[in-house]
Write a structure and sequence with these properties.
Rossmann fold
């Protein structure tokens, strides 16, 4: 037996030749592997749906569904929880196996197979699988840790926020001016930390596939008017002008979306514009136009059946973003060079929200002249 782990490895052999199947099965069973067989591609796919294995040995040239198509379906169509390596088996005079490798196969072996080469390639691919499985398990454990950590952090932060609010309201006695200033700083810092934890939790939910959006008709002009009202005090503190500009065709524009997530998206984008602008203004512009007239299909990920979209632009007169930073702006943990840059998760989360709404988000910026963030969302037909 080649290794103690081989007794736990399940291998599926797919070949339309009973002689080939018998030979490969005999070799592998002598090494302690558990072998199942399939005489064609359809049978192989059916078995994988009900009982996934650790490795597939796949004959390339079979009648009906050949090895190319089986490989493609395993990699593209089947929603397998774990990665399954594919070893192609081909005759010496068969066509080049490059197509199979391009479709997602991991290795190949030519007929007639030799015992040593077959076992070496099987062991190599099983090591690959164990390595990938271990990596995925570490990723799952990390995500679970982040989820538990953010939940555990959120509880005391919320409690601290309530207590600091009581202090500020004088519910626990009058505060001296010095004490009031300290409490204000503490409350602001606590809110920033709570916001960071909430953002991290939302990012985790998207990445773990645990985010469920409640789509409903959303009046964007109404939503943006609410946000301007909520964020105007923040702009006034910095003596900035915050204005909403609605084009005539954008009044009462309806999109299908999750209102809470769209609120989070535009709060983040408008809040960033205010945060990174020291003087001047922040403008929110809402326009509704024919999608093909302004951006290309590659820039807009909505369904081809959707002909119209709405564009929301958030323009500021801030410090701007360098071309180098723009290239990776929407990746996670990509912090800008500005002194007020945060965790690097806000714009990444914004992109995930836009993607979930089948839209696109772009940025245009010039140093010392400001930035424009443009969100394109499909209009409800």
């Amino acid at each position: 037996m080649s290794s103690l782990s081989s007794r736990f490895d399940k291998i599926l052999v797919v070949d339309d030749s009973p002689d080939n199947v018998f030979l490969i099965k005999t070799i592998l069973e002598e090494e302690g592997y558990t072998i199942s067989t399939a005489e064609n591609g359809v049978s192989a796919l059916t078995q994988l749906e009900t009982s996934p294995c650790d490795l597939v040995l796949l004959d390339l040239m079979m009648p009906g569904m050949d090895g190319y198509e089986v490989t493609r379906r395993i990699r593209e169509d089947m929603k397998l929880q774990a990665y399954i390596p594919i070893l192609l088996i081909t005759a010496h005079d068969a066509p080049n196996v490059a197509q199979g490798l391009d479709l997602g196969a991991d290795d190949f072996i030519r007929k007639p197979v030799t015992v040593d080469e077959l076992l070496a390639r099987v062991r190599s691919l099983l090591r690959l699988k164990r390595s990938i499985d271990e990596r995925d398990e570490i990723a799952r454990q990390r995500e679970d840790f982040v989820s538990r950590l953010t939940h555990d952090l959120r509880t005391p932060l919320v409690a601290a926020d309530r207590m600091l609010m009581l202090f500020q309201q004088g519910a626990l006695g009058n505060l001296s001016p010095q004490m009031a200033e300290v409490i204000t700083i503490m409350a602001r810092s606590n809110l920033n930390l709570l916001s960071m934890v909430n953002t991290l939790l939302e990012v985790y939910r998207f990445e773990a596939g645990r985010k469920t959006l409640a789509f409903q008709p959303v009046d964007l002009s109404q939503l943006l008017e609410e946000l301007v009202g909520e964020l105007t005090p923040l702009a006034q503190d910095k003596k900035l002008s915050l204005k909403l500009e609605l084009s005539e065709d954008a009044t009462n524009t309806i999109v299908m979306g999750d209102r809470l997530e769209l609120h989070r998206l535009f709060t983040n984008l408008i809040g960033n514009a205010i945060k990174f602008t020291e003087s001047g203004s922040v403008a929110i512009r809402l326009t509704s136009v024919l999608w093909s007239s302004k951006i290309s299909a590659s820039e807009f990920t909505a369904s081809a059946s959707i002909k119209d979209y709405v564009t929301i632009e958030i323009a500021d007169t801030g410090t701007g973003i360098s071309p180098e930073e723009q290239a990776n702006l929407f990746e996670r943990f990509r912090q800008g060079s500005h002194k007020s840059s945060g965790s690097g998760l806000g714009l990444y989360l914004s992109r995930r929200i836009v993607d979930a709404h089948h839209g696109s988000i772009l940025v245009s910026s010039e140093l010392n002249k400001g930035s424009v963030f443009m969100v394109n969302l499909p209009i409800k037909q």
